[in-house]
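A brief tutorial aside. Many learners find it easier to grasp structure tokens once they have seen a single protein encoded end to end. The record that follows does exactly this for Peptidase U62 modulator of DNA gyrase. Read the sequence first, then the structure, and try to relate runs of similar tokens to stretches of the chain.
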Amino acid sequence: MVDKQILKEVLAVALSNGGDFADIFVEHKQVTGIGMEAGRIERVNSGLDVGAGIRVLSGEATAYAYTNDISKEGLLEAARIASHAAKGGKKDVNIDLTSIKPLVNFEFKKRPEDVKTEEKVAVVKAAEKAARAADSQKIKQVIAGYGDSVQKVTIANSDGACVEDERIRTRLVVNAVAADGDTIQTGYEAVGSLCGFELFERYNPETVARQAATRAINMLTAQPAPAGKMPVVMAGEAGGTMVHEACGHGLEADLAQRNLSVYANKKGQPVASELVTVVDDATLPDKYGSYRFDDEGVPARKVTLIDKGILTDYLYDHLTATKENRESNGHGRRESYQHKPIPRMGNTMIAPGTTDPDKIIRETKHGLLVKKMGGGQVNTTTGDFVFDVAEGYLIKDGEIGPMVRGATLTGNGPEVLKIVDMVGSDLGFTIGTCGKDGQGAPVSDAQPTMRIPEIVVGGTAHGDDNPSIKRIRRI
């Protein structure tokens, strides 16, 4: 998008008043969104956002300027603005940019811009129709949404690295509302991937919609969830919402370095059960949180955070890595050119174990089986959480019993990981948009079936004025 010679000039201007490091992030992003509600297509939106962000680091201070004018003069003006915050004397900078190759490549088979809008609308209509057909009397409302984005980026820095990349993401979400008399319940399902329109070769829109609608319908006759401490089996299909929210954020290096994480200063120490290994792997194909390069131009790679219970690493961007005199491990991410990069997760998961998932249920005499997580809230400083259970069942004598509703899980993420006593051989993924510091980033979370011997079930999540409390809402 921008000639290398111009990038070199921009970086030189950014450091002309001093500073330790400078980079530029140029973005060209085309997005499409389609929404259907109350039986009608309510919106068909498309847009193009083009711009660049320029950052100068001086010690631990960051200066950031962005512009939607990516002409040479527009970029140079943004660089001059960022340079004024730099510390140190003026200096001449001669940068030789070298193109960096990724460690992994992804193939996009059916690009969204090559698909007619009518085809995308047809996907949404088919999903909405299938959800209503699940029970025309009980399904009262269906909201279906389609989205895709084609993001092209150019990233260069004063260390001499230069990267060009393209990310294409596609998703479908369905939310169904069922009612029977005064009882109202909802069901939700979402699929998405780092891919094009071929997403729907793997996920049938009607099947996704029926899953959402069936969940809402079944919840109408579910019995109230019991309250108290009990064993909980988290099914693989529940996805990794808990590991992402109650554990993953604490493993981001900026929070650990500011002592805002229960995992701060605990490298090499046991922080979970020996059965628990936590990794973040942005190189996985077809996952919503995957990428070839992070938003600082560092190639994505698999990072083991907890290895058989031992804390081994954090997620780093350039700034946090520099503070520890090490290299970034490819987790500097940003929402757009208007935002500076910060340490973020990609695809975060608890690695599969060796136990048959069915055996975990059979060996649980009583408790709760969680098949779908809902929203909730997390104190990112302590790991304390309250999560809603969107789909849960009682376990009686080692067998799956009746469906329950109104269940919540209350506990502490690190403490929960310490007492996990069975880990299954399966692995289930969910997708979401992770919020942090006012920025959203696409992520995937995953976990195998696993058993927590004791956790508090029941109760109702309520608000808190503590700013460290984070409300959870999955896309």
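Self-check: The radius of gyration is 24 Å. If you spotted this yourself, you are ready for the next section.
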